[in-house]
Structures are given as C-alpha cells and as structure tokens.
C-alpha cells in the first residue's frame, strides 16, 4: 500500500523534512486522515503517529490468510506404533522443561523401540528440530507420517520429510551431513568413505576440514592413500590435519619411518653395579649420527627450548607420541608392565613417559592404557575412554584434584553414562565451588545416574553465602531434572 510506504519513508527522514498527505490514502480513510492532518491542536509528530497507527491497523485488517491447495489432504496412516501413555507424559514434562539434552535422551529411547510420539506433540517436536539441528534426524524418526505431512506446510520443517541417508548426504545442511556421516562410519564405513571421496573435489576448504575431523577417529590403513593425497591441498590446515591422521595409523609410511628412527635412537643398556655382582637395564636416548631430513619435515623440531631437556631427548619425545606402544614390546621383547617400570627408573625415561602415554591414547591401545592407569605415573585424559570402569574411576580419583578441568572436559564430551564414583567427585566439587558449573549439569543430564539425586543434600558446601545459595538452587534443578529422566527410564521399560 502506497500510503504505508509513505509513512515508512517519513519515519526514516523525519517529519521536519516531509509531511503526510491525503493523496495516497485509501478513499475510505480520506475523511479521518484530513481531520488528523488539519487538526490545529496537534503538532506534526503527534499527527504523524496518529496517521501511522491508523494506516497500520487498516493494513493489518486487510491481509488475507495464506492458502495452500494441499491443505485438505489428510495425513497418511502411521506405520510405527505410538509410544505408551507413560512415555507421552514424560515427553510432555521434557518439552515443558525445554532441555535439549533431556529431549535427545527421550528421542533416542523412543527411536530405539521404533515408536513415535503422539500427534499432539508433533508440532512442538518440529519446532525443536527447527531450533536444534543436532536433533533433526531423531525428531524425523519420532514424528512419523504426521510430521512428514506437516513439513509440507512449513519450509522450516522440511527436515522431517522422508529422506534416505544418501539423500541427506547429498542435499542436507552441513550439520545434517555431519550427523549422517558420523552414523554411517559406524554402520557402513565403506559407504561413508565412498561418499567422502565422491564429493571431495566439490567441497570448500572449511567443509573438507569438518569432514576430515569426523573421519579421523575412524581412520585406518584403507585411508592412507587418500590422506597422503591431501598433501597437495592448498589449505595448510588440511595438510596438517591429514598429517596428524596419518601419524595415528599403524603401518602408514610416516609411522614406519618413526619406528625405524626409534630403533636406533632408543636402546637398553645393561649396567653392572660397582661391586660387579648385579646388572640392571637402563634406558639410553641418543640420536644416530645421520638423521634423515624427512623426519623433520613431518613437524618434528630439532632443538629443545627447555634447558632441562637435551635436544636428543626432545626429538625422541616428539616421535614417540606417534608410534604404537606395542612397538616397544616387539623391539625389546618386554611386557608393557616391564617397559613402564624401565621408563620410571631413569630420569630420561621419566621425561619420555608422557609421550608413551600420549601414544597409547593416539593408537587407542586399551591394554597399555590400563597398565598406565594402574601405575598412576602420569595423567592423560585421552586414556579415560579406553579404560574399564573400575580402573577409570581409580585413575580419575587419584589425579582429580590436579586435573579437574581435564576430567570435566571428558565428562562433557563422553556419551557414556557417568559412574557413581566420578559423578560424586564432580558434584562434591560443584557443591564447594558452584559458580564454574552454572548451566553445566543441564547439558549432561543424560549421563548423570539417577541414583545420585538422593545424595545431593549431603555434600559439604562452601561457607560463602552466595555459593551456598547458588548450590542450593543448582542441586534442586539437578534433582528435578533427574526425576524427569527417571520418568523416561520407567516409561520405556514398562
């Protein structure tokens, strides 16, 4: 409407430069518009505001609702069973709580039973999917045919339309492609790798980096040629990321080069005691006379900036991180336990021990991770996912006071349920110093065991009044959310 466009223009340039007139106003408003403009008792700003209010309401009243020709088509009959009444009541509480972590927890359980949410919850679930892209695949599965039908009336809900994983990979958003690639690498790794190779040349550098980061934890010998080919990429970040991935694949050329170097650089010498009655093994670290420059081209620094380290020790330390710990067992014909004891006996070995621990994490060696954790010589958070429950709890408990942030990072990143022992450690720390944990527990509620809710009031709290008050509210929120989680558990086990 021209009259409304004129109002917008006047609002932008000011009433002192232009005045409203009656020329473009609809005929039905001409009389009242004239009375507003010619009213001597009003200043120009008041006249403008009255006229703007009149035209705004006139325009709004004249808008016709959108029409969709397919609106009369009924939704298809559902193929999946609806969830139970108890599960529906739990979903109602989850949606009222507006907790995405808890909603994901409910959706995963519903989807694992090949069930769908009742029709009355479908719009709310689609709205959540619109806001949270991470939940879209789960929501699509749990809204059934009704959700697929409703997506035809709202382009923001198109994600609920029935699509194959390959269609999502080809046409989905980056977040959707990430999710489907992650899933397919678990269920059908050959197909996932084929997808990456097929579309690689069409991806931009940023997307390539994202896809490579998803592939990296799954990388194996079948990826060596592909990763080596990335050395020709223009992006330095991609080149470095590909190099890091190659460093964690046993049998890759770079790892084989590192192993060959270490055979010469690290040796075990037998030393005789002063009286000559006994001999003991000691670790020796000395670079060979000639070291190939190819080694240093892989990102290994030649010189140490720390005066407590020799250059030889520093070079060996860097390389050791990218050689499977089993290499040492084969080279020296010693068990992991015996090797760790050997490393712990000398000053050089103690310096190199963190590199050995890092290697156990890089190559996901569960045996070495367990042996290292039992000896408690050094802490490495990347070992935590590799450990059985009891050794993990013992390892965390021993190092928790000095490595709280690392443990918290692991707790935030893991998809596994927390043990009661780790949960108690974290909650006791939060009770004493609650401020760093504001909002944290609501994001990880799916991992927290329900049973801990009965203990929340028993943890020692800070003497500071503000901290006491903050923890009181925080613990009440945790308890309430855990009650909903327990409701979900019970609903899907009936």
UniProtKB/TrEMBL annotation:
It comes from Terrimonas ginsenosidimutans. This is DUF5691 domain-containing protein. InterPro entries: DUF5691 (IPR043746). It comes from the Bacteria. It holds the Pfam family DUF5691.
């Amino acid at each position: 409407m021209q009259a409304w466009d004129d109002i917008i223009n006047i609002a932008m340039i000011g009433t002192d430069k232009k005045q409203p007139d009656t020329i473009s106003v609809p005929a039905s408003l001409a009389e009242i518009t004239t009375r507003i403009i010619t009213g001597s008792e009003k200043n120009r700003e008041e006249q403008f505001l009255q006229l703007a209010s009149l035209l705004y309401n006139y325009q709004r009243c004249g808008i016709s609702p959108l029409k969709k020709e397919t609106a009369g088509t009924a939704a298809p009959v559902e193929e999946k069973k609806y969830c139970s009444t108890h599960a529906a009541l739990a979903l109602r509480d989850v949606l009222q709580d507006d907790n995405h972590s808890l909603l994901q927890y409910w959706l995963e359980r519903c989807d694992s039973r090949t069930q769908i949410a009742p029709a009355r919850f479908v719009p709310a679930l689609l709205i959540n999917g619109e806001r949270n892209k991470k939940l879209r695949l789960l929501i699509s599965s749990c809204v059934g045919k009704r959700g697929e039908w409703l997506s035809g009336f709202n382009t923001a809900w198109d994600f609920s339309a029935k699509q194959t994983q390959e269609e999502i990979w080809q046409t989905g958003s980056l977040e959707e492609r990430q999710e489907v690639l992650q899933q397919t690498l678990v269920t059908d790794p050959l197909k996932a790798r084929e997808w990456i190779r097929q579309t690689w040349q069409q991806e931009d550098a940023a997307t390539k980096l994202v896809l490579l980061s998803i592939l990296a934890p799954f990388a194996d010998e079948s990826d060596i040629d592909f990763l080596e080919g990335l050395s020709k990429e223009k992006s330095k970040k991609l080149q470095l990321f590909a190099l890091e991935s190659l460093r964690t694949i046993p049998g890759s050329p770079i790892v084989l080069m590192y192993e060959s170097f270490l055979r010469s650089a690290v040796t075990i010498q037998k030393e005789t005691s002063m009286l000559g009655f006994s001999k003991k093994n000691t670790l020796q670290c000395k670079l060979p006379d000639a070291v190939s420059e190819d080694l240093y081209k892989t990102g290994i620094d030649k010189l140490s900036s720390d005066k407590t380290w020799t250059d030889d020790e520093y070079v060996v330390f860097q390389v050791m991180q990218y050689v499977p710990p089993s290499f040492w067992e084969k080279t020296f014909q010693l068990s992991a336990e015996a090797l760790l004891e050997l490393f712990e006996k000398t000053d050089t070995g103690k310096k190199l021990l963190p590199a050995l621990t890092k290697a156990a994490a890089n190559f996901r060696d569960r045996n070495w991770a367990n042996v290292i954790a039992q000896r408690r010589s050094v802490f490495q958070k990347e070992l935590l996912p590799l450990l059985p429950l009891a050794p993990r709890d013992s390892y965390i408990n021993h190092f928790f006071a000095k490595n709280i942030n690392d443990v918290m990072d692991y707790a935030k990143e893991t998809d596994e349920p927390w043990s009661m022992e780790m949960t108690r450690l974290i909650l006791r720390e939060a009770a004493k110093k609650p401020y760093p944990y504001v909002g944290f527990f609501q994001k990880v509620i799916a991992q927290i065991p329900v049973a801990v809710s009965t203990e929340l009031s028993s943890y020692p709290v800070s003497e500071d009044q503000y901290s006491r008050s903050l923890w009181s509210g925080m613990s009440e929120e945790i308890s309430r959310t855990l009650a909903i989680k327990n409701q979900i558990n019970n609903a899907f086990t009936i």
